Amino acid sequence: MAKVIKISATRISSFLECKYKYWCNYVEHLPKVPSPAFRLGIAVHESLELAGKIWVKKGKFTVADKKKIMDKYVEMSIKEGIEDMSIHATGKELVKKRINSFDLGKILGLELQFGFRGGEDITTRDGVPLMGAIDKVVEIDRDTLLIVDYKTSKTSPTADQMKVDNQLSIYDLVAHYKWPNYKRIILSLDLLKNEMLYTYRTPEERAAFEGYLKEVYDQMVSFTEKDAKPLLNMFCPWCDYKEYCSTYEKACKKSNYKFLSATKLPEEELVQEWQDVKNIKKILEERDRELGMILIEKIKRENSNPIWGDKEVYIRQNARTTYDLSKIEQIVPHENLIKMVNLNKKAVETYANDYPAARDLIYSAAQVNFTSPFLATKKIRKVKETKKYGKKK
User: Fold this and answer.
1) Are the C-beta atoms of residues 93 and 194 closer than 8 Å to each other?
2) 311: β partners
């Protein structure tokens, strides 16, 4: 009997990142510990789903409705076991911020599940079953749909990253199948800690993505245990299955690293050596952080310092002094105060937006400084040949 596999963005990411991680998660179904960020995401999503249901019924939020939504967040935060109060408070602010700016248009769907939990089964033209859940579907006008995906992360993706984001591409495909009468589908990441970002897919990009899904799907279907080989990469320290991975364990324990003579390496081997060292560095840095956290908790819990030979490990804290600006400005003369204050880029830009008449003068005082050079990587764009002229473009 053929394997039944439903494609999701998370499944694709796991498969491409490390075949061993994919095997542990989707074949062996080994247990994993949800991260605080994952728990926060669930609590926030559940609260905003309730907010959406209330908005569909009433088209607004009363004071009692807002309290009900916030109470839902607190309930889910406790249920998910968020014990760090700073994380709990962050989620609370995210929900409060979003319900104060909720109106986008006519809501067609909330937490729209497909491929699981009784949600509609959606399959591509190539026979690839899809699985996921769209946070919110909004009708902007009779020709335009807006697909909203909530994100609680601190970082914002670039426009190029959003253009090739697998999750957004799957949502675009599902919306195209489910609501074919809409001419335009806008995709949005609602970065609850920042702002909303928008992108879209052209018909050509959508068709290319369908072909990509078919290739990934075929490889997943034919995947066997012998293919489940661990791949060391910079994401290893955050992997849910690193405790099962002998390759990761070996990398953590290894101390006799032998480095190749860099000046004599061919170009390809030089780049590979640089990439390998960078990955190992990430693994060791995260291992150091992990062991440090365990030691700190042990010292706090047992109220004693671990002994190592003739030394002991203890908790040390450095003090950082700050001053209340509102009080200092009452004491220090203005001409001296301005010499003591550092300008914050975000604060300056906020002021410039609030007082546009002064914006040009403010920006004329800007100074741009560059960091020291560092290495990075990016994909090489494929060069296309034009049939008419036979030239590269």
Assistant:
1) no
2) 308
**How many residues appear in the chain?**
393
Residue 319 DSSP code: -
What tokens were used for 189?
């990441």
Task: Give burial (CB, 10 Å; 0-12/13-18/19+) of 14.
Answer: buried
Phi-psi region of 6 (alpha: psi -120 to 50; beta: other; left: phi over 0): beta
- Report pLDDT digits (tens) over 177-213: 999 999 999 999 988 777 789 999 999 999 999 999 9
Taking residue 39's Cβ as centre, other Cβ atoms within 10 Å add up to 21
Please give the model's pTM, rounded to 2 decimal places. 0.64
The separation between CA 146 and the C-alpha centre of its own chain, rounded to angstroms, equals 20
User: Last residue of a domain, which of 178, 201, 222?
Assistant: 222
- How far is residue 371 from each of residues 300, 342, 368, 374, 375, measured CA to CA in Å? 39, 19, 10, 8, 12
Q: How many domains, in total, are found in the chain?
A: 2
The answer to whether residue 368 sits within a structural domain is no
Q: Are 64 and 159 a contacting pair, CB within 8 Å?
A: no
**For residues 72 and 76, what is the distance between their CA atoms, to the nearest angstrom?**
6
Report how many helices (DSSP H) and strands (DSSP E) the chain contains, helices first.
Answer: 14, 9
Beta carbons within 8 Å of 6's beta carbon, 6+ residues apart: 115, 116, 129, 130, 131
Helix (H, G, I), strand (E, B) or coil at 120: strand
Structural domain ending residue among the three candidates 222, 239, 256: 222
